[in-house]
Write a structure and sequence with these properties.
2 copies of one chain form a homodimer. By secondary structure, chain A is α/β, with parallel strands linked by helices. Helix content of chain A is 38%, strand content 17%. A 5-stranded mixed β-sheet of chain A has the order 2-1-3-4-5. The first copy, chain A, is globular. The N and C termini of chain A lie far apart (38 Å). Chains A and B meet through helix 2, helix 3 and helix 4 of A and helix 2, helix 3 and helix 4 of B.
Chain lengths: 150, 150
């Protein structure tokens, strides 16, 4: 069975956890649904606080297509994007942002600064939250519970 | 005379304009004031909508210091950062954000989602706006005026 984009994002999140990174994974699919990029969070490995899964996947997809505009593409991610990544999804002009768990503390779409709702926002992707929510959230919960015990 | 960080950021902005990129430049200085990174906008050249000057300079400084946290460092930029770059400055834990021109349309600190004012925001750098404002703004005005005529 072909894995779905969210399967791949969850797999990338689990791989991030195994490397000691906060378990978030992201995938960008093209207008035809083909997978253009898959990435997991690698902030610590890259010494890069901006190396969130979403930003890495968006940048990789831009490189694949040879364009800073990902028209018609979708961003799939296991956690509600933070304001940095949500804004980046808009700058890359993605068609849809589909995410797993809601992030009441760090999220930037349904929470916090709600970046797409600002009057000056130029491009507002369609947003679908709560996909495989339990699975995505339990990965994060397990990671932080383990850290607290360590 | 040693150029100031804002001199270097303005120079990077002019170099960006010469490459056909929106003229924004950024510099990161360390706790001792030493220049760690200088970058200009290179969205088109990199096929990367996230290749804003600020994000490039922050990432480069993280690589120089070998850490995703730029504690005590300052981000200097010719234009008020967008919500993506403002959030990134917070994630990188910079001490101060010092910018030139205000961006009433695309800015994310004093305008739009005002990302540092969200209750859930974890790190709020000191913000100083309006440094060399006229010079920074006139670069942008000249660039867009030329584009409209082309």
């Amino acid at each position: 069975m072909t894995p779905t984009p969210m399967d791949l994002a969850l797999e990338a999140a689990r791989a991030a956890a195994a490397r000691g990174e906060v378990p978030v994974g992201a995938v960008v699919t093209g207008p035809d649904g083909a997978v253009l990029a898959v990435a997991g969070n690698q902030v610590e490995a890259d010494c890069d606080a901006a190396a969130h899964a979403e930003l890495l996947a968006l940048r990789a997809a831009g490189a694949v297509l040879g364009s800073p505009r990902l028209t018609g593409c979708d961003l799939w991610v296991t956690l509600e994007p933070c304001p940095m990544c949500a804004t980046a999804a808009g700058l890359f002009r993605v068609r849809r942002v589909l995410f797993g768990a809601y992030d009441t503390k760090g999220g930037g779409i349904e929470h916090g600064p709600r970046v797409f709702e600002t009057a000056a926002n130029l491009h507002r992707p369609e947003v679908i939250g709560g996909l495989r929510e339990r699975e995505a959230a339990s990965l994060l919960r397990a990671f932080f519970a383990e850290r607290r015990q360590a």
